[in-house]
Amino acid sequence: MSGDITIKYAQDLMRRYYYERDSKRGLHATFTWFVEEVGELAESLLKDDKESIAEEIADVLAWLLSLANIVGIDVTEAFRKKYMNPEPPL
Amino acid sequence: MSGDITIKYAQDLMRRYYYERDSKRGLHATFTWFVEEVGELAESLLKDDKESIAEEIADVLAWLLSLANIVGIDVTEAFRKKYMNPEPPL
């Protein structure tokens, strides 16, 4: 481990690199890309290819953060509210 | 903002609360639950209900981290490798 990454840092990184393109593309088209990545994750799970599973999980996370940027959601706050307030729902 | 959450903290939290149940349920069943949450996110986007979008984004993230726990993927490392090495692919 060479150090942690905060959810906020990752969301900001996606905003910096992709927000302009994502918002131009639009919410529903960006959601469609997100779902395409979910499909790639499914494929990698079926193939049981760990390296590719790791890459697809990163991609799904990246597109989820991009979506959140388009709709103006702070993912850190959303996660905290649902899962750390005071603890995860069981 | 009352402080940042690292991806690692969130993944560990999901492991602590849900790993036993998730791993007993199995990978494909957990993936199915994850996709169910993606569907709920779609529904909230179509309804344009910001509070519900925030909650569903948190849920999709939570299930993605749970999936990663089952397959033994460190999401921080996966994200770093794909998007911070040295910078996001365009």
Describe this structure in words.
The structure is a homodimer of 90-residue chains. With 90 residues, chain A is mainly alpha-helical. Helices cover 79% and strands 0% of the residues of chain A. Chain A has helices at residues 7-25, 27-47, 50-71, 75-83. In chain A, helix 2 packs antiparallel against helix 3. The first copy, chain A, starts with 6 loop residues before the first helix and ends in a 7-residue tail after the last helix. The model of chain A has no long low-confidence stretch (mean pLDDT 93). Chains A and B meet through helix 1, helix 2, helix 3 and helix 4 of A and helix 1, helix 2, helix 3 and helix 4 of B.
Structural class of chain A: mainly alpha
Report mean pLDDT of chain A, rounded to a whole number: 93
* Order of SSEs of chain A: HHHH
Distance between the termini of chain A: 30 Å
Largest interface comes to: A-B, 52 and 51 residues
Strand content of chain A: under 5%
Shape of chain A: globular
> Approximately how much helix is present in the residues of chain A?
over 70%
The major pleated sheet of chain A works out as: none
Oligomer: homodimer
CA-atom Rg of chain A in angstroms: 14 Å
Number of helices of chain A: 4
The low-pLDDT segments of chain A are none
Counted beta strands of chain A: 0
